[in-house]
Write a structure and sequence with these properties.
- The complex is a heterodimer of chains A (72) and B (255).
- Chain A is α+β, with helices and mostly antiparallel strands and 72 residues long.
- Chain A is 14% helix and 28% strand.
- Chain A has a two-stranded antiparallel ribbon. In chain A, strands 2-3 form a two-stranded antiparallel ribbon.
- Chain A starts with a strand and ends with a strand.
- Chain B is of the alpha/beta class.
- Chain B has one domain: Rossmann fold, CATH 3.40.50.970.
- Chain B is built from 10 helices and 10 strands.
- In chain B, helix 8 links the parallel strand 8 and strand 9.
- In chain B, helix 2 packs across helix 8.
- Chain B is globular.
- The chains are: A alpha+beta (72), B alpha/beta (255).
- Strand 4 of chain A pairs antiparallel with strand 1 of chain B.
Chain lengths: 72, 255
Amino acid sequence: MAFKGAIEIDAPHCKGCGVCVANCPTGSIRLSRMVNSKGYNYAEMIGDACIGCSACALVCPDSVITVYRVKI
Amino acid sequence: MDIAEIKRPENIVYRKPALITDNVMHYCPGCSHGTVHKLIAEVIDEMGIQESTIGISPVGCSVFAYNYIDIDWEEAAHGRAPALASATKRLCPDKHVFTYQGDGDLASIGTAEIIHACSRGENIVVIFINNGIYGMTGGQMAPTTLIGMKTSTTPYGRDPRLNGFPMVIADMISHLDGTAYITRQSVHTAAAVRKAKSAIRKAFEYSEKNIGLSFVEIVSTCNSGWKMSPVAANSWMVENMFKKYPIGDIKDVLK
């Protein structure tokens, strides 16, 4: 059974700490080159390798990540 | 499958906990406090005890914890959270009472209060955030600071001849008969977060059984106080903090 996932990041409230990037097993997150209104390089999803494991959201101190997952 | 098709409400597997308010946390980027707040909110929500839970917030960075978790709170004087929690629990025995304290609060000015609350076997939960430094006031040495660790008051590293040795509170109170459950966890990886959450849940369940005090220590980072990036602080914690503060259960009277 395989899973496919996606994440949605509340960019205005992301502080760009990068803990999610270090914890993602599929390398599907990076810190954006853009900044939010507070000047933080917010996290963003890249590529389509996300499996919806929620590792990023579990370690996010500011609870800005919502995770979606479907079976394929 | 298209990303837009995946992002549907029925496919949500993880979202911000319902009890975390919309206030933006004042913590530094990557601070462990936010993650632990989230775990407490999830546990209270899953146990359905929002209406009967009273938190005691400390003095320190987490003084504003009452702004972030949507339950009843009391604010204690510096270090006195276990005393206030003891009174609250004795006056309202049907409530779930927990304190949330940092190491400057619990291990320094509040040492007497925590030791005596443990000794009396109060049926409360204590969440202890141990990052080995005073975060709020500018990174001074705390009783839990490691030997050789540089802080703003020990710029050449902590020297035991001058500053004494680190205090391992969880091991100390495990010798007191009033404690029921003592564990040490961390929140630096997804697996560690899951374990910490089940430890917090267990602590709240033990407090319902009236068998003594439950103590959950979370070994944490203070990346701004340690002068590191959040990710580097997590690896520094694994390499150095875990040697002095090993992760795992220390005491469980029901096992």
